[in-house]
Structure formats: C-alpha cells, structure tokens
Amino acid sequence: MCLAIPARIERVDGHEAEVSMGGITRAISIQLTPGAKLGDYVIVHAGYAINVLDQQEALETLQLFEQMAKLAEEEA
Amino acid sequence: MKFVSEFRDPKAAKGLLASIHRRSRTPARLMEFCGGHTVAICRNGVRQALPDTIDMVSGPGCPVCVTATADLDKAIAMAQIPDVIIATFGDMMRVPGSQTSLERARASGADIRVVYSPLDALAIAQANPDRQVVFLGVGFETTAPAIAASILTADEKEIRNYSVLSLHKLCPPVIRALLEAGDVRLSGLICPGHVSAVIGSRPWAFIASEFGIPCVVTGFELLDVLHGIDRLTAQVEAGEAKVEIAYGRGVKRDGNPAAMRLMEQVFEPAPAEWRGIGTLPESGLRIRSDYQRFDAECLFEIDPGVPHDQTDCICGDILRGTQTPLDCKSFGTACTPETPIGPCMVSSEGSCSAYYLYGDGNHA
Hints:
The structure holds 2 protein chains of 2 kinds.
Chain A: E1 5-13, E2 16-21, E3 24-29, E4 41-45, E5 48-52, H1 55-75
Antiparallel strand pairs in A: 1-2, 1-4, 2-3, 4-5
Chain B: H1 10-23, E1 28-34, H2 35-43, H3 46-49, E2 54-61, H4 63-66, H5 69-79, E3 84-88, H6 102-107, E4 111-114, H7 118-127, E5 132-137, H8 144-156, E6 162-166, H9 171-181, E7 188-191, H10 193-199, H11 205-211, E8 215-217, H12 222-238, E9 243-245, H13 257-266, E10 267-274, E11 278-287, H14 296-299, H15 315-320, H16 343-346, H17 351-358
Parallel strand pairs in B: 1-2, 1-7, 3-4, 3-5, 5-6, 7-8, 8-9
Antiparallel strand pairs in B: 10-11
C-alpha cells in the first residue's frame, strides 16, 4: 500500500507535473512537495510526489556500500 | 543515478550480508513493521541469507490487512446506495467482509471502480456530476496527505459530488500498543520508509527511549533492507537503542512538513479499530468539521449490521507478530491468493500473500 516509486520530473505546471518512471510518462501532482523542480527525482505514491529524493545522500550511501563490498572481498 | 538499480547491486548485497554475519552474535528478533518490507524480504530470500541468530517477524504495517471488518462492511453498504460510485485502491476489492466483498458487490451491480490515485476519483466525480463519488480512504501517513490534497482540490474546484470515507490509520500509536501489550518481544524494529518520508524519524523516538528497542528507518530495495538489518544488528551488539535513518535519500528527520500540514489541515486524530488489535485511541484520522461536506460518514446514513470475522483465520495474530503465516492451518490449503479467507492473503503486501508467493511457505 505504501508502495512508492522514484520518478524524474520532466515538466512542471503549477501543482501538476509530468514524470518519467522506467520509460513511462505520467501526470502526477506535486502539491505535497512545493520545492520540487524540473529534473528532480521524487518518490511517487498514489499519483502524488511525497518527497524529493536527495541525490547527495544517495551517493554517500552507495559509497558506504562500496566500501563494505570491498571489505567483504578482502576477507573472502 | 536512477535511484533503483543502484540499490539492487548483488556485490553490495554480499558486502552488507558479510557485515551482518560478522557483527551478529546475540539472538535477535527483528520486526519489519511495513508490508512493503515483508515483500522485499520474502522476494529476495533475505530471511534465508541471514545468520541463524537473526529472526525476522512481520508487523501490522498493511493498511488493507488492518482495516476492520466493520469498516469494510460500511464501505460495502455505501456501495449499495443508488447513484453512489465507490472509488478504491485495488487491494481492497477482494477482502472478505461479513457477508460479501467489494468485488462480489460489484458483480451484483454496485458501481465500484478501482483507481490508482484519489486524483482519478476526482476525475470520475467531474465526469459524473449527477452521481456521488465516495473514495475509500485507506492508508497510513504515506497516503493520507494525498487524500487530504484531493479534498482541498475538490473544495477549490467546487467539485461537490466527491467525498471520502476516512479509514486512515496512524503507525506510531499501533506500535506503542503492540509494545505495551508485550505479546511479542523485539530486539529491533525496521520502521516504515514511506510513512517516515512524510512524518520523519522523530515519531519513532519513544520506541528507543521508552522501550529500549533499536530502530532503523529504511527503504524498500534489497540494499536498503540489508542496510537496515546491518544497522539494527550493530545497535543490538553495542547494547544501544536509538533511531537511525538508513534511507537518507528519501527520509529526513523532520519528514515532509508541507505534506504534514495539508494532512493536519483536513484531518484530525480519532479512535480507530484495527483488525486483530482492537480500537486504539488517536490511531486513525477523521475529517475535520471544516471539511464535513466531503465526509462520506456525514453524508450517507447506513446500517451495515453487526460484523463477524472469519473464524478459521489467524490474520489478527499474524498482524500482532505473535504467529506467522506458517502457523495457520488454512495457509496454502483453504486460503490462497486465488481463494483468500483473510486480508493478509488478499493484499499484495500482506504477510500471507508474500510468504505464499515468494516461497517462505515452500509454495513457490
């Protein structure tokens, strides 16, 4: 039920936006994320963006995973 | 950055699993509150890949599953009113009520439409100005802001034939109730990621401070789930209890204040009945009196009668985390996704459905 999918904002018109999710374009509302702008990735749930994804945080998490993968390889 | 495939990388998954195995010494029972996490755990075979010291148990985090039979009966009764169109998320269709389901009511002639978004329900209302469209407001804090926004849009656009039956539930109160009941002893809790995208991580602080249980908020890709379990294991082994965010890209400590404001503008906390758990104070949302004209409960008088639950179904115990689907004698025999007896087998995020579909019950 709380399924929400990352999507990139391709067009903004007031509260309405067009996003691309896995190659499909669909209209959503960005009423709940007033800061969302063109090019941002948002989490979409039930036709509404519920948050803007933080790219910097994502990169830091992936760097951490990379270090952990290296450590596991060294141990193996 | 696509925010999806990067978080499914098998090499990183190995690294995270190695870390969990390296850390884990103490037997630990971890609960994943959210049905979305249950699906991710079952689908990826996470349970089987974890060390024997870690036991995962599913929680009540599936809004369809926790909807009380009485509330479902109310929705089905509303569907019988002439000129009413019920709009609902698809998962609700097959949940058995006392007498029938929305799906069977539709087969008998009721106008019930499955929608992806409350925006679709608004469009149905605009296309049918002489009919009343009732949207079934089922969901947690993730969904309530969207439904609040739809009411504000209806107000702004003067769509007068749109209303909501608010059956929303709030997550922190039910977790408190489970922990206070003490039926299930937990060493750690995976907090719901998309509820937290809206409400932030602060509302979980009491779980760590009052109950001494480590908490991690995480996302729904494989690496998110493993990261969450790794952080919980680290806390368990260090004897700590705090709230961590392992889903930094999607969740901030303060959540999404704009979404919370809209939710609070339209709804106020109210008692709510949870299947298998009972009525809990301040654990649901009702529509504020300012928006009463959009409240289906105020618009329609219905008498759904006295509810009765299926007797050979242990969904209630499964939702409390005291039993697993494998403990149910109907699981996989009388009760399957094709012929569900209880809501945990109907909802795609119900524990029984996830266990059945992804093989934790050896049915894959």
